[in-house]
Amino acid sequence: MSVRILLLSALAFGGTALAAEPPPGDPLAALVKDPLHSVAPGCVIGVFDDGRPQAIAASGFADIAARRRLDADTVFYAASISKQFTVLAVAQLAQAGALSLDDEVRLHLPELPAWADGITVSMLFHHTSGVRDWITLMRMAGMDPAAPGAKQEALRLLALQQRTDFAPGTALAYSNGGYLLLAEIVERVSGKPFAGYAAERILAPLGMRDSYFLDGADPAGDNLAHGYAPVGDGFEIRDGYPRFGGSGGLMLSMNDLARYEYDIAHGHRVWTPAIRRIMLQPGALADGSPALYGADAMPYAGGLAVGPRKGRGFVQHTGSAEGFRHVYARLPDDGLSVAVLCNRADWVTQDKLDAVIEHLRPGLLTVPDARAVSGIYRSPELPARYVLQAEGDDLRLEIVADRSPAAGTRQLLRRAAEGGFGNASLTLLADPDGRGITVRAGRTSAIHFERVAE
């Protein structure tokens, strides 16, 4: 790879990552440069080839008032990118025999109400527990999730609930509440504060010297990024994020993320083969169907979405909190990883990531052509044919019931930027090999159809 942006050098386990200023006209930095404001927040991009840092590009300011620019050592609030670190902590304890992923959560948190019966640790991993989202509950109660003491209030609110949102194991619903409980389990089993455990067992062994989990106090340091939101012709600070770990809470720099990425590919001090299996194991519902997450309908594993996206295999997670938007993705089959950390609320980092990949490897990501998806499909789970016909970039779906073929229904599925087709009630994703489709509708997460002869 010949791209030269903020090159990292001397990076190995425990080594030092050094960043130089980007050259004029840096093409990667241009992808995250604000076209309207000369002084604005922005993003840091990290590019990794087979786990080794190839380039880092930065554009924008970490602190607009102080005119301090973003760089590879800027520390961001990582938001939900933190979740994979929470799972790492639990996975380590499981490998040590201190707990089992099949343990019911009340074994470790006996004070939870009866709604927790039947919920396992792995269900918390995969968002299939039905545990309600603590951030949503706090806002519904008129409380600030970023206020002092919010962790105790969040746990109290969870304990006040009389039921889960659905029977455990029967659906997937993204829940920060489940990940708050995972952090509590780490504390009970290890006998250490979650932030202390993560520092000792994950961050320090990887040399992630600038990164840490918040533990009730405001973040500290000279290289913090403020989060920003556009207001009028400028930007206002938005730093209202929770000050504790579990569902979020990690403070992270791109240089430290490079050390983490290196361990996944080569170091294996934390990402051991056994840990990798836990982290990348996709979740499943009680009926055996995959636990699918997000617009791309990717299986959800250990704090990571894993599976096909735009024709390639992805392992990724996004992060969002007030003035921060992030995405960190690995494409294992292509030996490529890209992270985009942004301190502004108005940019879609998934689009930025796709633009970086297109710049680096043109044509690598593909979106199925409507004509290629056209055809007839059947599923053993439904007594009906799905007939798809291209209408420009979109698809016309006709559902023909076996018992009453004359009474079929027709609807238009618009092509989506994520690579699928859909409308307000139904989403359709084509298999990468073109042999089938996966359909989601309402509370039904995934029914797979195979292409059949016309």
Automatic annotation (TrEMBL):
* Keyword line: Aminopeptidase, Hydrolase, Protease, Signal
Q: What is this protein's record name? A: Aminopeptidase
**What residues form the membrane-spanning segments?**
none
The Beta-lactamase-related domain extends over: 32-355
One Pfam family recorded for the sequence:
Beta-lactamase
Question: What is the scientific name of the source organism?
Answer: Pseudoxanthomonas broegbernensis
Endpoints of the signal sequence: 1-19
**Any coiled-coil regions, as ranges:** none
